[in-house]
Automatic annotation (TrEMBL), chain A:
Residues 167-355 form the Rrn7/TAF1B C-terminal cyclin domain. Residues 98-150 form the Rrn7/TAF1B N-terminal cyclin domain. InterPro entries: Rrn7_cyclin_C, Rrn7_cyclin_N, TAF1B/Rrn7. Keywords: DNA-binding, Metal-binding, Nucleus, Transcription, Transcription regulation, Zinc, Zinc-finger. The keyword GTP-binding does not apply. This is TATA-box binding protein associated factor, RNA polymerase I subunit B. The gene is TAF1B.
TrEMBL record, chain B:
Transmembrane segments: none annotated. One of its GO terms (biological process) is transcription by RNA polymerase I. Pfam families: TAF1_subA. This is TATA-box binding protein associated factor, RNA polymerase I subunit A. The lineage of its organism: Eukaryota, Metazoa, Chordata, Craniata, Vertebrata. The gene is TAF1A. GO terms for cellular component: microtubule cytoskeleton; nucleoplasm; RNA polymerase transcription factor SL1 complex. SUPFAM superfamilies: TPR-like.
Length: 494, 454
């Protein structure tokens, strides 16, 4: 299923970048043979029937790549027997050359872009941050992906630039590449993302609310914000390469930003108001033991902070411990081969020696990949799960609608930047914002494994959409910077 | 460049000599500065973090944890950064050795295995690794293995590297010489215990072989300016056994007097002992010890020195003797030394009974000490303690206290009281003696007082 999609994308890419499937490939004019050979090779590939399995689907993607380069190499071998086996890919040198504009070149992060695009097309319940997390946890081969290549393919020389990976893929990079790719391949509009789809903010918000241990009742508020800002529209969400305004597709960051905006609406997060509210909640919870507990920000903060500290420490240690090199080393030339192999052997033996010194077995069972990183047990008598708590503490009834008691709001930034100048719409500097806000940003940044500034940028965008009318009205009156007073709650109108 | 040029008003104020300042506005590309440059790869970042964890674990003696992180840190040897690859072998070697030395599960074989690998890792560190390994073996009493390693290392040659690692090579040769000496002395001891008839030619030959190897290496290392005490001692021992006293003398004098060598009191001690063994004249012995006195006034040989000086007929030497003994007692290590005190007491007694001819010597010496010796040596607390622990010491000190500080000194009074109570005869004589020479105290202290009033 997805293999076909990926295959289509891949062929399209090859055609567009004029590496194959076209009358004259850019790289190797003398070897016209290549074109037909690679085409036939790829066409005649055996059907790969692998069930849709989260942990192995990338393998087929990589194999696809290699099929094509395999085709190229094998054709070279056929044409000139004098060339040694270690010639690497024939177009390896072209990857090292400086990138010309408009020329899309393959790289390891690009393979992930391909994957994500395919997932998006199929509307699978996997967000980009989940995907990258699986890669980092090793469920998807990335660092030493060449381990899984078939025997005949030998990586050599300049191929190293591509296949020797020394960094984890970054969200922004993969995401931008994906958008570029979609435009490059002239893809039509992607399948629509509707309310019932997993990637819709309403659904994703539930997921992140659960993971961040926040009350379920916040969900109704997130839906309201989504409706008000028009972020939930199908046209806005669906990726459409031709339509400039519909080119976002960062659903996870979007949902998280919405949650943060809701928290700001209800709790203000100016390092004072939320603590006052939590004092009330605490007193009330002490008096009324039965019934639903009110959401106490202070308690929530303590629980989540301790949990996060532990997890962050664990993550940092695991990152330090991870092994980057695999058993088969890469080397630049035949001369280096012997030395590199020898070194690898020695390192392996040393690792074994030190491994023998450690008590615990080195190979712990690999946990299967899961969507959730943090889970909160409702049955726990500690009361550390806040899902069921009510928001009564900071709502007041008016008619049959609830309004937040908090009458104020502060904008993260009054004016958005120009994307062309600095690449981003908003910049994040830690010291400018309240500690509660920083904490929540850090929490979600950890959950998504994304840089804090990306989330902050999205929050700014949403705020500007939300208070669009207000901002434009006020700007004529020259309002105070950073403090916009709203007499009415936003949920009431619209 | 979009730079606009402005001229400030200053330039217009009429001073034509001052250059006008041009302030270009920032070009547009500087408006949003962004750090660009070689970004650190995750590999490098995680390896740095790994190193921090290892360092923490080492400092907290968590050897297990250090070993765990070491497994992943070993990959730094394959880093793509050239500079990291160069510095990695030494770091790996040192960290690995630390862990293996202290980990409960590791033993000498593990360390040997590891060191072998380290030797193959980088040619630049080869001799250093060898040397440290040899030290480890020596410290753990594995002399034979150390000897084997030394022989192997001595014969190592690697083109340019041999010249670059010359210092280590010299050290290795020196230690080989030392172990050759050790073997030689073992052989010698064994031969001395056997009867003469059982001497075999081969064992004697072996002994001579060791001697030759040792002599060559030890001589070489002593030539280099430095502190080579154990080597010098061994070498001199070898030379003395074979009767080459001239060579020995030359070596020792070089070692002691060559200004290129760092100042080393032990050198003078060795020279002194050698000359004594050779039966040299008192004059030369005294000259050697004079230098020692200058550098280490509290040396244990100072008493010998003092005895030699006081026996001399020359006035200068005896004056020096007094100085020596006073200086010796300046140091806390000699506070309880009965011999030293009795020497000083003897000397003072002699001077007093000798018609006070040299009382001014005493005055000179006492001048710089009268401020602090009372509290240092003659306090009431010390009086009690000395009397309890060592009566002889108390007696000698009391005598000096009585003379130098007068009858009213606390120390003197206490000890005298105790001694008379215990009905010791000599304390009676002491009392009389001090009374007799009480004027001396006045002379000693009075003269110095008057001198301060000047």
């Amino acid at each position: 299923m997805k293999d076909e999609i990926l295959c289509c994308f891949w062929r399209c890419y090859l055609q567009k970048s004029k590496q194959a499937y076209c009358p004259r490939p850019v790289n190797d004019t003398p070897l016209e043979l290549v074109v037909s050979d690679s085409a036939t090779d790829v066409d005649s590939e055996p059907e790969r029937v692998s069930p849709f399995d989260l942990s192995s689907f990338t393998e087929s993607d990589i194999d696809l790549q290699t099929e094509c380069s395999f085709g190229q190499i094998s054709s070279v071998d056929r044409t000139s027997e004098t060339m040694s086996v270690y010639s690497g890919s024939i177009d390896g040198s072209s990857y090292v050359l400086k990138r010309t504009k408009g020329n899309m070149r393959m790289s390891m992060p690009m393979t992930l872009s391909f994957c994500y695009m395919a997932l998006l097309w199929l509307k699978e319940p996997v967000t980009l941050s989940d995907l990258l997390r699986f890669v980092a946890e090793g469920h998807i081969p990335y660092i030493n992906a060449f381990q899984y290549f078939p025997e005949e393919i030998k990586l050599y020389g300049l191929d190293l630039k591509i296949f020797r990976v020394e960094s984890w893929p970054e969200y922004e990079e993969v995401h931008n590449k994906m958008l570029e790719l979609a435009a490059f391949l002239d893809l039509p509009r992607f399948p629509a993302i509707t309310d019932s789809c997993f990637l819709h903010p309403d659904m994703l918000c539930i997921k992140y609310l659960m993971e961040a241990n926040l009350p379920d009742e916040l969900h109704s508020w997130t839906c309201r914000v989504v409706k008000k800002t028009g972020v939930g529209e199908t046209n806005f969400l669906t990726l459409d390469a031709e339509n400039e305004s519909a080119r976002k597709a960062n659903y996870d960051i979007l949902s998280v930003a919405i949650i943060i905006v809701v928290l700001k609406l209800l709790l203000l997060l100016n390092d004072q108001y939320e603590w006052v509210l939590s004092n009330f909640a605490e007193e009330r919870n002490k008096k009324n033991k039965e019934g639903r507990l009110w959401f106490d920000f202070r308690k929530w903060y303590k629980v989540v902070k301790t949990c996060m500290d532990i997890e962050q420490k664990k993550l940092a240690e695991e990152r330090a411990r991870c092994l980057w090199k695999c058993e088969t080393p890469l080397f630049y030339s035949a001369k280096q081969k012997a030395a590199t192999l020898k070194k690898r052997q020695m390192i392996l033996s040393l690792q074994r020696q030190f491994g023998a010194l450690t008590d615990s077995p080195q190979v712990t069972e690999k946990q299967s990949p899961s969507s959730f990183q943090l889970t909160w047990d409702e049955e726990n008598p500690d009361g550390s799960c806040f899902h069921g708590h009510s928001l009564e503490g900071f709502l007041q009834e008016k008619g049959n609608l609830h309004r937040p008691m908090n009458p104020e709001y502060w904008l993260c930034t009054v004016k958005l930047c120009n994307k062309k100048v600095c690449g981003h719409l908003a910049h994040y500097k830690e010291g400018d914002f309240s500690k509660s806000y920083q904490f929540i940003l850090n929490l979600f940044s950890f959950l998504l494994r994304v840089d804090v500034s990306l989330i902050h940028e999205e929050v700014c965008l949403i705020e500007h959409k939300l208070f669009n009318a207000r901002l434009h009205k006020k700007s004529k009156k020259q309002s105070k910077p950073k403090e916009v007073e709203i007499p009415k709650a936003p949920g009431n109108t619209g | 460049m979009d730079g606009l040029v402005e001229e400030p008003a200053l330039g217009e104020e009429g001073d034509s000599l001052a250059p006008s300042i041009h302030l270009p506005l920032l070009p547009r590309c500087f408006y949003h500065p962004v750090t660009v440059g070689r970004k650190k790869t995750e590999f490098q970042k995680t390896k740095e973090a790994c190193l921090n964890y290892i360092q923490d674990a080492l400092l907290q003696n968590q050897w297990q944890r250090a070993a765990e992180f070491m497994i992943s840190y070993l990959e730094i040897l394959e880093s793509s950064t050239v500079s990291k690859r160069k510095t990695a072998p030494e770091a790996i070697w040192r960290i690995g050795t630390e862990i293996l030395l202290h980990h409960s599960k590791s033993n000498i074989e593990e360390l040997n295995y590891f060191t072998e690998r380290m030797k193959n890792l980088g040619v630049k560190n080869y001799l250093k690794v060898c040397l440290e390994h040899i030290f480890y073996l020596l410290c753990n009493g594995l002399i034979d293995e150390a000897y084997q390693n030394l022989t192997l290392a001595e014969g190592w040659r690697y083109g340019e590297q041999t010249a670059a690692q010359n210092d280590e090579l010299k050290l290795i040769q020196a230690y080989k010489g030392l172990l050759d000496y050790y073997n030689w002395s073992k052989k010698r001891k064994a031969m001395l215990e056997l009867d003469e008839e059982n001497f075999t030619d081969s064992s004697e030959q072996e002994m001579h072989n060791f001697f030759r190897q040792a002599a060559v290496n030890l001589k070489e290392i002593i030539k280099i300016p430095g502190v080579w005490d154990p080597f010098v001692v061994c070498y001199v021992d070898l030379l003395e056994f074979y009767g080459d006293y001239d060579e020995a003398r030359e070596v020792l004098t070089e070692y002691a007097y060559n200004s290129k060598f760092p100042p080393n009191p032990n050198a003078h001690v060795y020279l002194y002992h050698f000359l004594k063994r050779q039966g040299e004249s008192k004059k030369s012995l005294v000259s050697v010890l004079k230098i020692l006195h200058k550098t280490v006034p509290s040396h244990e040989l100072m008493l010998e020195f003092y005895t030699m000086l006081t026996k001399s007929k020359k006035r200068k030497k005896r004056r020096l003797g007094l100085e020596v003994i006073f200086e010796v007692l300046d140091f806390a290590g000699w506070k309880e030394n009965v011999k030293a005190w009795s020497c000083l007491a003897e000397q003072i007694k002699q001077i007093l009974e000798n018609s006070n001819k040299h009382l001014d010597w005493v005055k000179e010496e006492w001048n710089s000490r009268k401020d602090w010796w009372p509290a240092f040596h003659f306090s009431h607390y010390l009086a009690k303690r000395n009397w309890q622990e060592n009566e002889k010491l108390a007696y000698e000190k009391a005598l000096l206290a009585g003379i130098l500080l007068g009858k009213d000194c606390k120390y003197y009074k206490y000890v005298l009281h105790q001694g008379c109570k215990a009905k010791k005869k000599r304390f009676q004589t002491l009392k009389k003696f001090v009374k007799k020479h009480s004027s001396a105290y006045l002379r000693i202290s009075a003269c110095s007082d008057s001198s301060t009033h000047l």
